Amino acid sequence: MRAEPIDLAAALAGFTQLWSPRIVTRVNDYDVRIAKVAGEHVWHTHDDTDEFFLVLEGELRIASRDGEGGAEREVVLSRGSVHVVPRGVAHRPSSPGGASILMFEPSGTSSVGDRHDPVPDHVDATTGHPL
């Protein structure tokens, strides 16, 4: 952890890769990650952890599926909005116009979950990169 405050706008300006989260800091055993996103991520599920999203800029959409073969629903998050996807829920983030987001999840959590559809080239399957 850094002793100095971290300017999130400056941190976001330091990289261009989409769907490739950067670890800003850690709190106990959790990563605070930021990412730039545009287009669609991949349908995925985190079996053992919830996933927290905060939109810093732009708009993020999160589609989810309820249960086996369940109906899809979508939440739309604007700047300043937060949403938690509960553990075990299949979901797919997307952002037609692009967004910057902050996520909070246990260190070592994969960006494509424990179960996922095939990962496209524009999505970085990672546990986060150092800032």
Q: How large is the share of residues in beta strands?
A: over 45%
Number of discrete helical segments: 1
Question: What percentage of residues falls in helices of 4 or more residues?
Answer: under 10%
Alpha-carbon distance between the two ends: 11 Å
Low confidence ranges: none
Radius of gyration: 14 Å
Q: Which word captures the global form?
A: globular
Structural class: mainly beta
Spell out the helices and strands N to C.
HEEEEEEEEEE
- Secondary structure: number of strands: 10
Largest sheet: 8 strands, mixed
Query: Whole-number average pLDDT?
Result: 93
Q: How is this structure best described in words?
A:
The protein is mainly beta and 131 residues long. 5% of the residues lie in helices and 49% in strands. It is built from one helix and ten strands, in the order αββββββββββ. Strands 1, 2, 4, 5, 6, 7, 8 and 10 form an eight-stranded mixed β-sheet that branches. Strands 3-9 form a two-stranded antiparallel ribbon. A hairpin with a 2-residue loop joins strand 1 (22-27) and strand 2. The longest helix is centred in the first third of the chain and has 6 residues, at 8-13. It is globular, with a radius of gyration of 14 Å. The termini are close together. The model has no long low-confidence stretch (mean pLDDT 93).
Summarize the structure.
The protein has one helix at residues 8-13, and strands spanning 22-27, 30-40, 44-45, 51-58, 60-65, 72-77, 82-85, 90-106, 115-116, 129-130. It is mostly beta strands and 131 residues long. The strands form 2 sheets. Strands 1, 2, 4, 5, 6, 7, 8 and 10 form an 8-stranded mixed β-sheet that branches. It has a two-stranded antiparallel sheet with strand order 3-9.
